[in-house]
Design goal:
The chain is α/β, with parallel strands linked by helices and 215 residues long. It has ten helices and six strands, in the order βααααβαβααβαβαβα.
Amino acid sequence: MQLEDIKLFIFDWDGTLSTSTALVRFSRFFKIRYSPKYISEHSYLFKSRPDLGHADISLMHEEEEKNLLYAKLYEIYTVFTRPKLREGAVELLSLLKKEGKKTAVFTDAKRYRTIREIRMNGISKKIDYLLSADSIGAYKPNPTGLEIIVREAGVSKRSSVYVGDMASDIFTAKFAGIHSCAVGGGMNSIDALKDAKPDFVFSSTEEMARYFAER
């Protein structure tokens, strides 16, 4: 299948559509969870499926942040730096919507922050679905979030792709049984992304936008 035949494009947020990596969910397991070697050698750990029950994936409202400390830290962060989109992100989303594609974001970042950054950059109408791993307690490379979005969008796995800047994004797509697309210039090098064997590779989000613009 060619990339232009895909009907549902699911994007990672930090490093893929956004330049922001602020307040990323760090833990003492961070290096383990995101290590391509660990993931590939222990893939069986990520193939069990939690309940695919209801999850709020709409952009229709912005819930109040219950973690007041997190919300305050985020507000302070935005005073000093406005989260920006990567070069080509707006063009890419616009081209996909023009071609009638469905678009979504699946991220490990908190839903509150992601919604705020999406709205701050004026792209709410370019994204059909948003799901934070934090809201379902299933973080990448666990594929549950991708499976929920595919189900809600009513699109087959064969017609879906996950676009990300980390090898863990590629593995998440593979575990979900959907296509994977790597974009360079983010958290992982192009070589690390290629080692994860994605179905499609672009040097940057901007190059991916040019691909659709030149069709």
